[in-house]
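I have been asked to look over a protein record a colleague put together. Alongside the sequence sits a line of tokens, each denoting a local backbone shape. I have pasted the whole thing underneath without changing anything:
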Amino acid sequence: MSSDQFDSALDLLRRLPPHSTSANLTRICALTPSLTEELLSSVDQPLQTRQCRKTKKDYLVCDYNRDGDSYRSPWSNEFEPEVEDAEFPSERVRAMEVRMGEAVEVYRELYYEGGVSSVYFWDLDDGFAGVVLLKKSMFSFIHVAPIEAKERLRKAAARADGTRYMSSRLSIGRGRHTTSSPVR
């Protein structure tokens, strides 16, 4: 991958309408497949909702539960569509992911009174990391936290980074215009 191509792709995405980021990102990846992985992990996009084939529960997709063109459902722990050599969290980390997902679901229902939430954890060399995703109407929230486990001390250290998105639909004349952008 050429650094110039990557920088040009990011520059182009910055200049195009924010409401078309996902569509434009798909088009750029189709034109330059060698940039796909780097672009998908570098460009913030609004959260999209999918339904787990096994449980029929909605979940949110993002770069943190993606493997190629597949996404892992937090409800079934399966990739949709199936991935041959997919990486899954260890049993211990998966158990924490499930418990955190249940807690976030309760929080979402109490605080937001609806919407969709998903939690994904993955193993790191010195612990694990996780992301909490929340989406309600025009708001999307992404909170990422690497957690350094200190096994002998039964302690962990975490630092969370978050991104909030707001999407809005405006009626201008006879047309509709949608914008979506990160709120920092």
The longest strand covers residues 139-150. The chain has a mean pLDDT of 83. The chain has four helices and eleven strands. The CA atoms of residues 34 and 132 lie 29 Å apart.
